[in-house]
Design goal:
It is elongated, with a radius of gyration of 32 Å. It has 28 helices and 14 strands. It comes from Latimeria chalumnae.
Length: 757
Amino acid sequence: LDFVLVWERNLNEKERSVAPAGNENLNLHERWRQKFLRKLEKAGIQIERHITEKDKKEIRFILLNAPWNVLCYYAEELGLPLPLLAIPNQSQNWSNELLKKLRIPNIMYENVPNQPLDYYTCQFKVTKLERFLGNDDQSTFFTNTQRHQILREILARTVYGRRKKAEVGIDRLVTENVFTAAFPLHDGPFTVPNEDIPPENLSLRQILYKYWARWGKWYKYQPLDHIRAYFGEKIALYFAWLGFYTGWLLPAAFVGTMVFAIGIYLMINDVPAKEICESGTKYMMCPKCSICDYWPLSHICTTFKAGLLFDNGGTVFFSIFMSLWAVTFLEYWKRTNAILAHRWDCFEFEEIEVRSRDHFYKEFERLISSKINGLVKCFTGKPPHLSLFGKRGLLLGYSLLPSIFVVLIFLVSIILYRIVIGFFMFKVGSPLIKESAFLIASLTGSVVNLILILILSRLYIMLAHVLTRWEMHRTQTMYDNAFISKVFIFQFVNFYSSPIYVAFFKGRFVGYPGHYYTLLGVRNEDCGAGGCLIQLAQEMLVIMVGKQIINNAQELLVPKTKPVYTIYSRKKTWCGVFPSHNPTSGQDWLFLMYCNLFSTYWSLSVLQFGFITIFVAACPLAPLFALLNNWIELRLDARKFLCVYRRAVVERAQGIGIWFEILDVITKFAVISNAFLIAFTSDFLPRVYYRYTHHKELHGYINFSLAYSPPDFIAQNHTMCRYKAYRDNDGSYSLTYWNLLAVRLSFIVVFEVGQFY
């Protein structure tokens, strides 16, 4: 049995469909269904029909099997690589080899039974059948995954209506609800019925569950060859990348934790921190807002010390380390990817081998007859002189810009929210609340920002689907790459606009006492005397950790509750009435439909990888949080593929696709970001400058970093105050400011040259 088609309907629909004046849509679906099955039989597919009825509902299981001659014909047409000669499996892990040489026991290694062999392969030719390994046994010559791949290709090519209207393939039939589902079967149950069964007698699914998907195997090597044998190269490469990435997070998490611990030591012994905490009323600071009072700098003693956990010399070293880590990680992943692709015979896999999308011809026909010329004229005011696809690209541009503006509008709204809420709490709150008014406003603003980000995230994914369909991509790979690129642009702006604002823009356009800049009549936000880096760390933790908690909660609870509810409700109705000779078809029908790897790749590569590289200088613990998340993510994904989803059809792939290019873009952006973060946001360079020009122990640094309010402000308010800036008494930039600017720009040049060259 190679494939299963499922058709579910109410029995009263059946009565309407056979009535003289029956439902036209049901009749059309019935004609499509019957024609599709006749075409399959004509193509040589063996079909078994089984009907199950209960409580006015009917399920029809169409069991499909491809005979030997059909398998050979399509294997040659698809160019499937088949074995010529078996060789010992050459898979190895560098850490295992290293520990062997050092004679250290390796707790990560486990002997997984039935290790798949490696082969010399060649594209299948019927005329050369006798040269292929195992040609004497037709039942085992093609593996289960190869049979599934061939059946899936036949189902995707079979016409059920008019080809000009793109009435082709099983995907559209499932979309039109002609069939409820189409899927290959799992290899029996995933649980081992009896622990006394020898490991070599277990099915591949049971081996994967016992030696890979269980929570107790979180520290073991992944059996990648077994995963590839069961799920195919595309899914296996995803798990290979996730395991490789998680392994590389170990040194990053260790160094980050050490840097954070050093920050605790520096916080306790920091001279400027002691000066602030012991200053009393020595430094009276200018009001934070138009209705705020003067305040002593000693009030931020705790906040300033907390900021030292994220803004010290160790974090500068760590940002340099993580920039090198990211570049090296990608280089070594390219090497690992090439090794796996070569070993799995997909290194020379080309897109020409991939068929056109099922909806391509339908979309093309609709495009020809659409009024897109009128739409372009409406936008530009001129008759179009572009090709049809060029006009689609023009409309795409008109859609991208407003979407980005929406994110910026929300960002401005969050800024105004923090300012207004801070004013309100300061005005009506108790003395304790007044002291923490702007901190509370900042925290609640970050939470509100996360909620808006999650809402926009879903909307942008839907918008990206619509825009990508407009572009008329022929193959699924082209479609996926275009879709992922748009999602990356949207989500990069969506998720990173707020941290980028805090890191590089907040507090830059404040002005000075008596000459403050405003936004919509409200004084611009300032970072405060504690600096922006601690606020950036807060923003990162809320967005990154909050998103990870929500994702893991969804994967732990939704795949637990939704499938359990679905399976329970279906079992309650259909228990005991599935086809008795093949109950697996009914059991697999209860599972959730496998979609794709998009959401997992996106959350790990775009969101997580970006936060641990672009803004790592603000939060050394980010790699540790990422590591803990990935340990959970890997086991969750393994269990979902084995125990929750229907079996996925094998897809060949050379690597992780466009996700690697996205990781590369993020890495390059991270190198630039970290340089500017250290130079302009961190207090590291001003401290270094003060050490070499004034005092090695930083005595007097606080007074050095504070400016005096200008005379016109003192004359108006009858009070002198201090504010954090490098300005003269008249408000103009001091010589120290320009010297520091030269130091900062020099640091950026040295940092970038050192990283890129």
